[in-house]
Fold each of these.
Amino acid sequence: MQQPAVVNVGGLDVMPFTDMAQLVQYIVRDDGSVFAGSAIAINPEKVMKARSDAALRDMLNQAEIRYADGMGVVKVMRKKLGQPVQRVPGCETWEAIMLRAAAKQVPVFLVGAKPEVLAQTQHKLEQQGVLIAGTQDGYFKDEQLLIEQIKHQEPVSLRSRWVHQNKSCLSRRRNNKSRMPILWGLVVLMTCSPAM
């Protein structure tokens, strides 16, 4: 699937997906492969904050996918493009990606939240047919141990969505040659080797 063009909204380059389904299919493809990179929802609050915070603007623009999750951003994009652009809500998109991962048998590694919330999320996802490759609650101190835990799954490629600035260290690690993941709230999607 070809990458959509970008529209600059207040210093952030945002991709004009026609709807949530297009974004979900861009991330988890029909053949079960998964997009290589990170994605973040862009809303008016992030645009306004990024205008005065260069570090935040740079971090947001480093995500390979920046999609419109706010009507203010959508309206600017519609006006600049002269064509339909839909709001892509983050939480609903995450749920749709999990369902597509289940349908395509793409394993998911869950990261974040309190242990009991993580366990509930894992249980609900497993009930929906999602293959859980592993989990780690959000109260970890050793980033290298988490990276090794994920690498132990022998991923061919890793995919995710960025939470926010507090995990920027892992984001920087992802940009090095090792192709390490960044976090998407609770999830890292991975296309794994058959040995898993």
Note: Residues 7-192 form one domain.
Amino acid sequence: MKLKQKKLIIPKKAPVLYNNKIQSTFVKVINDDRKISCAIALDKAITIAKARNLDLVQVAQNGNIPICKMLDYGKYRYNVLKKSKQSKTKKVKTKEIKLRTNTDIHDLNIKLKLTRTIIEKGHRAKVNLVFRGRESMYESAGRETLDNFARLALSFAKLENEIKKEGRNISLLLIPKNG
């Protein structure tokens, strides 16, 4: 029997109210000096904004009287969308690649190609060499394997930090050369 997955319903932000969509009779307007004026009738504030070829946009709801600002609504909305897109696009992930002390040269080359694709996508790559059981006695062989891997990876990436031991693992972090 297959279970249905529930869709997450993400509530959208309340729409920005402007001009006649503001549902109050009085508003406080932020001046060009960034000072809040006393309460003005909504109709009067809209006519002042129209005279300046601007829109009256509600910035905050402060009690009964909303606070508004005179600005170009289209430009304001464009800047808000642009900022939200920029914050979404710059997500860098750290991908992990595991090696062992007895990893063969061919397998090391395959892991190197995988690392190259991760780095080319703009992500960081953490290369872990895992010791199991008595393998931890041969830490020098593990370091040598990781050194060889790092030397080969330097053609397309750079080291963010040196090789360090973390419990039963030794690891290094690779980042793209341009970033």
Note: Residues 6-11 have pLDDT under 50 and may be disordered.
Amino acid sequence: MAVRMERYQGNGEPSKVETLFEGAVLGHRERNWHDDSDFYAIVWDAEKEWKDRRGRVRRGAIRSFGYATTRFATYGNTCTTDATEEVQEAAARYNARLVLADWWAAKKYEAAQVRVGKLVEMRRDYRPRKAGRDGAKKGEAGRVFWRGVDQYSVPRYRNSYKRATYRVGVEFADGRKVFVPESAVEVPADRVAWNLPSPFEGRRVARAYARDFTYSHRRTSAAMGMLVA
């Protein structure tokens, strides 16, 4: 038995029992609120459609289904893990696609960040505040040798609206060392691609995560982007 839903009819009529997602329940979880708790079944929905990162429509996805709660009477509802081997393999492939997409997005973000040792390019002209110091023109390329908090922009009270900004030291080919705001430089697109890891590493990480993933985890829905029916 998979998810057993007991529908109360009222007026003295017997309850109706319905069995859902037979052979497709991967696990279950509980979410505790302040006063109540909700119970979810992690199921494989073979009819659910979704789009991958290339825009192609695919069928079959993991989602969570709320089968019981303490907010009202659901004593007759139960959930039993009964996923077949075919369903588990399909769910593992689905997890691997999601993990691979998130992994690539994180690596692309890291590769585009301005850090010490990376080659960067000026996004705009920079003129120093004090006369006699070297400036830089838009399009000039150099290597970052220092990165730190801009002492003139540190807010008295830091929060989500007031954050410290950074400055970087860039050494250009002619030997000039210029300290500019981090917002004035960027990692060129070709260098971003250069800083990315091998695609084989991403596939290895995705397969390992999908193989070891636990469906009865409390954070399953948030981690895998599932929807509550």
Note: The radius of gyration is 27 Å.
Amino acid sequence: MRFACIAALALVLMGAAAASVGPLKPSWTVRLPNAPSTTPLSALSGPNYFVNDINGTVWSVDTLTHEVKWSLRWDDLSALVAYPLRDVLLVQVQEGTWAVKGTTGELLWVNNTYQLTAAAAVDKWIVGFNTNSWQVSGLSCIDVTTGKQDWWFNAASWGQTFFTVGGTALVVNQSTVNLAMAIDVATAKTLWQKPVYSVLGAGNGLIVALNQANGSDFLFTYDLLLMDPATGETAATFKNFTQSDSLQVTFDPNGSIVLTDGQTFIAAVDSVSFTRRFYVNLANVESLPFGVQSLVIAPTAILAISNANASSQSQLFNLTSMSRTTGEVKWTVNYPPTTAAHTVAVLGKLVIVPNLIGYVAIDAETGAIVYKNYRDGVPVEFGTQMQLSANAFVAQNPDGSVSAFEF
């Protein structure tokens, strides 16, 4: 999509120290012949950045050599999904799924029946919901290197909620009965079934779930459960943890499980010692008077994203940095509307914030703005479809070209 130019754009920085990261400049640009698609898609596999254009052509740009490796055209593109472990790019179209080799564009297989949703990679398999020829919804396990379906589980009565952790696929039934079932992806063996009120997510080697503790028809409290994905056994229980049944959960690589109900608290529990690291009452956080929409983990902080004020007209967003160990607020930035509400990306010491006319790069340690790629409401560089690699972020520009910032 092209960014609309908007005037009188204000970005207010509060309490930020001097930047510790130097100014950013695009490292390289690769020109492509066509404009971006009106429904842009992108993916990244190793050094290979994939993006489509307005004609339905998918381009592969090598981020190391800065050259186009290959291009292929499809009609009715709906998704691009990269599986770096197997060097496979899945291209989903209206008629099914194509698989090509990411590095060369070589066609690996085509299947006209697969239209997977909520798909996840587990080793060499892709697991996701699919509707078979009898229009029955099921969980499919497909070998991404061959396109063959290894197994299919009838999930018509289970809804379409599932998580993966390690080699386990966890199917959750929250439509008729509150039940979770774990399936070994390699063998299709059912490992266990357990009644739970809801499953919030899976990560850090654990399943995070809620069970009703007590209450009436109008007000319940819920216990937080940390479960072993291999056995379904409860490793730890935090009694009367919340009155909300729709917590957001974010997994911190340093061992924390960070949770928020979006309105009253942000809390972190340790996924090894099973102790509570911190609990922050949002009523005491001046920079988050309107709650929290999402959480992002940065190397040195937890980033809480929220509306900056109650007005739907100004649409400013708020980015608040909090200590990963104590929950203490470190800095706060207000910024203009993003291309996808409440979306930021973290690359090393930088927090990259896409907005309606470009990007802002913020020092993750201090909150200082170190780069913005617009001037007087006009984009200087970069458009949309940002992807993060190990040492750069890559994006498609409004003219269809591809640029990168390297670090």
Note: The radius of gyration is 22 Å.
